[in-house]
Amino acid sequence: MTDSSGTKSMSIIVTKGSLDWAYPPFILSTTAAAMGLNVTLFFTFYGLSLLLKDLDLKMTPLGNPAMKMPMMGGHMGMPNLASMIPGVDAGATVMMQNMMKKKGVASIPELRALALESDVRMIACQMTMDLFEYTLDDMIPGIELGGAATYIEVATQSEINLFI
Amino acid sequence: MADQTLDAKGLNCPLPILRAKKALTALPAGATLEVLATDPGAVKDFAAFSRTTGHELIEQSVDGNVYRFVLKRKA
Fold first, then answer.
1. What are φ and ψ of residue A52, in 5° steps?
2. Domain locations in chain A?
3. What number is the ipTM of this complex?
4. Does the beta carbon of B12 lie under 8 angstroms from any beta carbon of chain A?
């Protein structure tokens, strides 16, 4: 809702917790906050992994037919079966992390800290916290708990509502 | 000559914008910030940032692979 000072708002429902899916919510929220929007992130299901104190984000080529990494001068994908081989998924994770570092892309811990610094409101879905038996103690400080109605209220007041 | 220079070379989206925002907030109204970046996406991003926030993009140039932006902190 454009408040009395003309400030717009954005909300994002964050449902995924892999290394690649961690980027869109944190990049969009920090950039929007930098551009003057009020931003709320609602973390649910696997998005909860992005709030853990000990971030351990991973990647897999399994079921990711569009994932083709720059390798040997071209772009190469991996057959699903390859994920069965020990070390392949870990290798994909490490490869992505190295690529990010090499190209000067911010790390997730850095983006997450910037989000908190920019007063992005972070809500953890109470129901899925209970479902996966997470406690607030597992999570970084500075987040609140909320349910679906909490999110819907935020959404009714936001010009932009995204589902990631 | 800008009041402050921000070296964002080698940093990719969204870092140039985030660092610029932080630097601008710390400057007094009317002060200028020069940002140097190598991310080609920064060209459109700084234009959009300027339009949306009201911090005027008073100068823009490119030298080789380094893009230069001068922003003026709004009142």
1. -65, 145
2. 9-163
3. 0.88
4. yes
